[in-house]
Amino acid sequence: MENNVYGVCKKPLKSLPFVALCTLVLFVRISKCDLVEDDSDNLLVPNHGFSDPSANMEDEEWAMIQKNGNQFVLNNQPFYVNGFNTYWLMVFAVDQSTRGKVTEVFQQASAVGLTVCRTWAFNDGQWRALQLSPSVYDEQVFQALDFVVSEAKRFKIRLILSLVNNWDAYGGKPQYVKWGKDSGLNLTSNDDFFSHSTLKSYYKAHVKAVLNRVNTLNNITYKEDPTIFAWELMNEPRCESDPSGDTLQDWIQEMAVYVKSIDPKHLVEIGTEGFYGLSTPNRFQYNPNTFAQQVGTDFIRNHQVLGVDFASVHIYPDSWISQTLSEKHFEFTKSWMQAHIDDAENYLKMPVVFSEFGVSVKDQGYNSTFRDTLIRTVYKTLLDSTKKGGSGSGSLVWQLFPEGTGYMDDGYAIVLSKSTTTSDIISLHSTRLQLFNSLCSWKCRWGCKKKHPLESFLHHDEL
Question: Reaction(s) catalyzed by this protein (predicted)?
Answer without folding.
Answer: Random hydrolysis of (1->4)-beta-D-mannosidic linkages in mannans, galactomannans and glucomannans
